[in-house]
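Entry for the shared binder. Reason: the reviewer on the internal report wants the predicted structure included alongside the sequence.
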Amino acid sequence: MKNALNTPVADGITRREGLLTLLGSALALAGCGGGGGGVAGVSSGGTGSFSAGPITGFGSIIVNGIRFEDQSASIVDDDGAPMDRSRLKLGMLTTVKGSKTTTTGASTTATATSIVVGGELQGPISSISAATANPRTLVILGQTVEITGSTIFDTSIPGGFQSLAVGDILEVHGVLDPAANRMQATFIEKKNAPNVFKIQGIASGHNATTKTFAIGSIQISYLTTPADEVRITPADGTLVRVRVQAQTPAPAVWTATRIRPPENANEDRDEADVEGIITARGASFTSFSVAGIPVDASGANVRFDDGTAGIVLGARVRVKGRLSGGVLIAERVRIEDNNEVNNLEFELHGTVSNKTATGFTLTSIGGMVVKVNFSGTLAGLVNDAKVEVRGVVADSSTSSTSINATRITFE
């Protein structure tokens, strides 16, 4: 039997409303004008699994509760550039394709074949709230970023939220509600003078003659953007990812270097598990879109865990099913409530080092490192021990994020 230490969450942890999301696609909403009938011509082909969302654990990586073995996976950023596994961090947004999942007891595993990592927002802070505000917020490229109780601050920001200042350039991974032009951050790191900034959102005010459009309050021109880098026309209502020339101070009109749709789910998969915000909805609750991925929930056996009244624009949901023809054929739809999000539990597997009476460093096989705080005692908890840690984010207002353990188990 495994020996475990149950340790309470430390007093005073700030837990605020948070939300997980996924790297979206710009696929059109299937059946948006219909009344909830099935999607015509959808087959049941495809193999393997698809999962999209932030990394909520490691040893290998864990996304949407699935532990993906990633040693042989290709890992790239959202530009397609190779990434080393050691650069993967808790809270980073990922799209994972892999083998079919296997469930043994409470553990679900799969072998990842490809991992794409990318944040939706990168640019300078133009305004910042007080550290005591509830919620704490930043504004970057006109987009409001909410700091939640589950936000991970990278070690590049050792002083946490309180150390941030106007003009700091950040990359933010998180939940995007494009209609509200607002994001709830899952991971934030500081960048040093990048050549480009980036933003994801819904295009508006598109002028095909002047080749200009807006995302929220910022104006963007693609008049001089190379034709092969305009991979989608930013027509009004289109969800787009845009890279612009890095400029400080901010210009009246930003110059786009690339316009493209978000990451998509265009391969058939027997298993799909995605989490995010409903960004479009048809006449019926059975036809909606999660961060741009069309969902068909018209099947007779679809399980709505929390009923259907909450299937509305801006709702936070998790949808499980399969992918076919670019559509997520739902088998289960669950609305994410604030309590679940505010008490998000991370799962970490790795080796103990630098142990003290109240904490230690945990290093995964892939090289990811997290500081773990704990209370109580556990015989055998020494350097080089192999453990599983479950815990929540410590308050990150004054330091980079660490994990307060709620359970430690030897492996």
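Summary line for the report: The longest helix spans residues 338-342.
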